[in-house]
Design brief:
Layout: E1 2-8, H1 20-23, H2 28-41, E2 44-50, H3 54-67, E3 70-74, H4 83-94, E4 99-103, E5 125-128, H5 133-145
Parallel strand pairs: 1-2, 1-3, 3-4, 4-5
Helix pairs in contact: 3-4
This protein binds 1,3,4-trihydroxy-5-OXO-cyclohexanecarboxylic acid (DQA).
């Protein structure tokens, strides 16, 4: 079975109430449920985590690299500046698993500081701008690259 960990960075736990005009009205809890059911549909084991803490996110990425678990990552604001997250992503990339960078919004259509990602250069690919459906598309991308 393909194992995937979906890692979410700061403020994503407030999905549904946080800037619904940008991030939509789907709550974090409902996204977690959808991720589990999308995973089941594809015969994948999907674990979902969220933290507002940079060190914790870097640690989870390092764990995924060690365990060689595929990663879907929405690093949220850390995407734009965190060297710690970038270096942990580089470890995931080097371990040979799939790393999909995901965003609910399209950062390139927003403020200038969001146009930079320290993750993209070490990601397998990037999916952004499709609302929470970006996560489903990311799981599709992992499924397409891994034997069932
Ligand atoms: C985000 C985009 C980031 O710029 C922002 O800081 C987030 C969410 C997204 O999913 O669209 O927190 O990663």
């Amino acid at each position: 079975m393909t194992n995937v960990v979906v890692l979410n960075g700061p403020n994503l736990g407030r999905l549904g109430t946080r800037q619904p005009d940008v991030y939509g009205t789907t709550t974090y809890e409902s996204l977690v449920q959808s991720l589990h059911s999308w995973g089941e549909d594809r015969g994948m084991s999907v674990e979902v985590r969220q933290t507002d803490d940079e060190e914790t996110l870097a640690m989870w990425l390092t764990e995924a690299a060690r365990a060689r678990v595929h990663v879907v990552l929405n690093a949220a604001a850390f995407t734009h500046y965190s060297r710690a997250v970038a270096e942990a992503c580089a470890k995931v990339h080097a371990s040979g698993v799939v790393l999909v960078e995901v965003h609910i919004s399209n950062p390139h259509a927003r403020e200038r500081f969001r146009h930079t990602s320290v993750v993209s250069g070490v990601a397998t690919g990037v999916i952004s701008g499709f609302g929470t459906d970006s996560y489903r598309l990311a799981l599709e991308a992992v499924a397409a690259r891994t034997p069932q």
